[in-house]
Amino acid sequence: AQSVTQLDSQVPVFEEAPVELRCNYSSSVSVYLFWYVQYPNQGLQLLLKYLSGSTLVKGINGFEAEFNKSQTSFHLRKPSVHISDTAEYFCAVRLNYGGSQGNLIFGKGTKLSVKP
Amino acid sequence: KAGVTQTPRYLIKTRGQQVTLSCSPISGHRSVSWYQQTPGQGLQFLFEYFSETQRNKGNFPGRFSGRQFSNSRSEMNVSTLELGDSALYLCASSAAGRSLQETQYFGPGTRLLVL
Questions:
Q1: Which residue, B62, B81, B70, is CA-closest to B20?
Q2: Which chain B residue's Cα is nearest to A34?
Q3: pLDDT 10s digits, A17-46
Q4: How many Å apart are CA A24 and CA A73, to the nearest integer?
Q5: What spatial distance separates the first Cα and last Cα of chain A, rounded to whole Å?
Q6: What is the pLDDT of residue A111?
Q7: If you measure CA to CA, which chain B residue comes closest to A37?
Q8: Which residues of A touch B50 (CB under 8 A)?
Q9: How far apart are CA A98 and CA A40, in angstroms?
Q10: Residue A38: how many CB atoms within 10 A of its CB?
Q11: DSSP character at residue B20
Q12: Which is deepest, A28, A42, A75, A77, by most CB within 10 Å?
């Protein structure tokens, strides 16, 4: 069965420190990969996505992620976090069966808490 | 361009009642998907509509239903509400709904509390 695992449910970090949020997936078909962020009482906002090509993807707000096919991972990184990055982050995949439809399959989320 | 809007934002119902939630996609978007978010189960896919037709459905009971209108606006309905239906219901739209590479844009959600 296809699944997405976010290895850390909570990540506390000090302001200006680097952070890595880990995501692994399992799938028998190729996938498209996404990271979304959810601020309190809001919907989800796309940070970045990997479709094909370069395995290092840059997104908004200084975030980047690297797709590693052999390790089936798509970890999210930021070299220096701000208080405003405090939010919940979701990794998601869409399974590529060759058609045009397919829902997002989400991980359980990682709550990033940035402390001053 | 206005984002995805959902109404109402908050809703309180009692067990056994039914509820209808509304979603207006980004102008020009034709695909609308619904997701349920709970602390225990996380984000789970409910269904997707494209050109007024449901073309994908998640693993939810038949009490959950939806529809899409010709202007791409969508509604979802939950009948015979149960306590476990308390959740944040998120709607997402994408432009043409013809490629898995399209970004899904999410609305702010409707928070439903069932008492």
A1: B81
A2: B103
A3: 999 999 999 988 888 899 999 998 889 999
A4: 4
A5: 41
A6: 97
A7: B106
A8: 101
A9: 36
A10: 21
A11: E
A12: A75
Alpha helices in B2-114 (DSSP H): none
Percent of chain B with pLDDT over 90: 83
Q: Taking CB atoms and an 8 Å cutoff, what residues of chain B touch A103?
A: 33, 45, 48, 56, 58
Range B29-36 average pLDDT? 94
Give the best residue of B7, B10, B24, B43 to mutate against chain A (max A CB count within 10 A). B43
Asked if B106 lies within 8 A of A96 by C-beta distance, the reply is no
3-state secondary structure chain A: CCEEEECCCEEEEECCCCEEECEEEECCCCEEEEEEEECCCCCEEEEEEECCCCCEEECHHHCEEEEECCCCEEEEEECCCCHHHCEEEEEEEEECCCCCCCCCEECCCEEEEEEC
Mean pLDDT: which of A74-88, A100-114, B95-109 is highest?
A74-88
- Substitution target in B100, B106, B110 with the highest count of A β-carbons within 10 Å is B100
H or E stretch including B91? strand B87-94
Q: Is A109 on the interface with B (CB under 8 A)?
A: yes
B contact test, residue of A36, A103, A106, A110 with most B CBs within 10 A: A103
